[in-house]
Amino acid sequence: MTEFSCDNPEEHCDLHACQLTATERNPEVDKMFENPRFACTNCGVKVHDAANVCRPKEL
């Protein structure tokens, strides 16, 4: 595993916020960014649920 690998590659999908920040957003996707409690140590995106990023770190 490299420094920038996903902690859970079996479940890594296009729904991780790391991937979604590069796509067109909609209200449902925007909800995962409300009241952030975790940040991805790969890309820095902040989300409410740790499951939505590759490498979560509690804020």
- The helix tally amounts to 2
Provide the low-confidence segments as ranges.
none
Instruction: Write down the Rg.
Output: 11 Å
Order of helices and strands: HHEEE
Neighbour order of strands in the largest sheet: 2-1-3
Helix content estimate: 10-25%
Largest sheet: 3 strands, antiparallel
Strand content: 5-15%
Approximate shape: globular
Structural class: alpha+beta
* Mean pLDDT rating: 78
Query: How many domains in all?
Result: 1
Number of strands: 3
Cα(first) to Cα(last) distance is 24 Å
Written overview of the protein:
The longest helix is centred in the first third of the chain and has 4 residues, at 17-20. This protein is α+β, with helices and mostly antiparallel strands. It has one domain (17-58). The chain has a three-stranded antiparallel β-sheet, with no helix packed on it. It is built from two helices and three strands. It has helices at residues 17-20, 27-30, and strands at 38-40, 46-47, 56-58. The radius of gyration is 11 Å and the shape is globular.
